Amino acid sequence: MKSFIQISFDSHFPIQNLPFGIFSTQQNPTPRVGVAIGDQILDLTAITVLFEHHVSELKSPSNVFSQSSLNSFMSLGKPLWQATRRFLQNILSNDNPELRDNDQLRQKAFVAQKSAKMHLPAQIGDYTDFYASKEHATNVGEMFRGKDNALMPNWVHLPVGYHGRSSSIVVSGTDIVRPCGQRLPAKDHPPIFGPSAKLDFELEMAFFVGSGNKPGERIPIDQANKHIFGLVLMNDWSARDIQAWEYVPLGPFLGKNFGTTISPWVVTLDALEPFLVNGPTQDPAPLSYLNHDVPSAYNIQLEVKMKPNKSDFFKTLTRSNLKYMYWSLKQQLVHHTVNGCNMRPGDLCGTGTISGSTEDSRGSLLEITWNGQNEIDFENGIKRKFIEDKDEIVLTGYCQGDGYLIGFGECSGKILPALQ
Ligand SMILES: O=C(O)/C=C/C(=O)CC(=O)CC(=O)O
Ligand SMILES: [Ca+2]
Ligand SMILES: [Mg+2]
């Protein structure tokens, strides 16, 4: 498969990918639906006539694609997402002259990514964050609760999660203000109030729910993929000192709800299908509603880089892989609805921090520096235990195809000083 658009060998967005996002430009500041191809964006509102000719199942393309979120498109369901994707691959193909040889339409339809502003891809009604990496849960549990209580007994039986805060989810490139809150200055001291001194990132991915389920209904495991629209990178910024003091007995609250960053391009499950692999062996076997015996993990290589304040260089902090996750995306979605909880188009589910079994694949500074016991060295004598003001964190990820990448672009954010 080859496009008439030039795609560099290291592009995250070849014709095999075609992720969906919401963008605007200076000439046309109205946010609308686009698809990334190479270093360009195909503006779907510019080719609605082609949709009318070729994808007649899609009833009002001009309405669906002129929205400032993907929610409308997501709610149409998987057969229409797939028909749209097939059509886009066809119209972008080097063998198809319809768009390739129509200079006037090409002028209108393509926008350089570097001149576009990206927006949140969806209006996120509800956001849930899971805790699905056994290595991460064990590491954090050990630091917060001690070695003997590291992994709670329920953890191997169900995908543990908590309800997060959707209002503070932002798109890549948005600055995050350091949170203030209560923390213990030392063990057995009363709490003090002030800026978090242990600000951290969490390397995560997240899936967008496409079509939802009605209240009281549940999504069965063999239907789960029909409900998942696609995946993004996610950084669940975490204030470890606020978290450690507040989270018992109910779990994460102000330590995590001040900001969560996601990447702008939603990569569809169809684009990721060639990268399905077996996940870790689940022992004990999960209850039958969570049971799947087909490959359900995705081989997605992940990396986190940091550029400390006053440095010009990024340093890689960790390399991990989505396939390390103990609980699959399908199991997370199925468990979320097993009690009849309804999901809606645009709901976002974070996977939880993705740590591997080695020290260089840990998905947070909490684990990398072991709660600040060790320091990370950067250029020019700069050292870090946690994130300082004006430090920048960038997450990236891709699948390695045969001669192409299926990439997610970047999920970046810089920390601004706390409000006085
Ligand atoms: O209660 C704990 O031990 C820790 C909870 C979390 O850190 C929640 C979280 O964000 C989970 C994750 O990212 O894996
Ligand atoms: Ca998290
Ligand atoms: Mg968060």
TrEMBL record:
Record-stated family: Belongs to the FAH family.
Q: Which GO terms describe its biological process?
A: homogentisate catabolic process; L-phenylalanine catabolic process; L-tyrosine catabolic process
Carries keyword Transport? no
Query: What domain of life does the native source organism fall in?
Result: Eukaryota
Q: Which organism is it from?
A: Funneliformis geosporum
Q: What is this protein called?
A: Fumarylacetoacetase
The record places domain Fumarylacetoacetase-like C-terminal at: 127-397
Lineage of the organism: Eukaryota, Fungi, Fungi incertae sedis, Mucoromycota, Glomeromycotina
Please state the pathway this protein functions in, per its UniProt record. Answer: Amino-acid degradation; L-phenylalanine degradation; acetoacetate and fumarate from L-phenylalanine: step 6/6
Q: Which SUPFAM superfamilies match?
A: FAH, Fumarylacetoacetate hydrolase, FAH, N-terminal domain
Q: Name one GO molecular function term.
A: metal ion binding
Domain (Fumarylacetoacetase N-terminal): residue spans on this chain: 16-121
Which amino acid positions bind Ca(2+), per UniProt?
D129, E202, E204, D236
Binding of substrate, residues: Y131, R145, Q243, Y247, T353
Which cofactor does the UniProt annotation name? Mg(2+); Ca(2+)
Q: Where is the active site?
A: H136 (proton acceptor)
Q: What does the record give as the reaction this protein catalyses?
A: 4-fumarylacetoacetate + H2O = acetoacetate + fumarate + H(+)
Q: What is its EC number?
A: 3.7.1.2
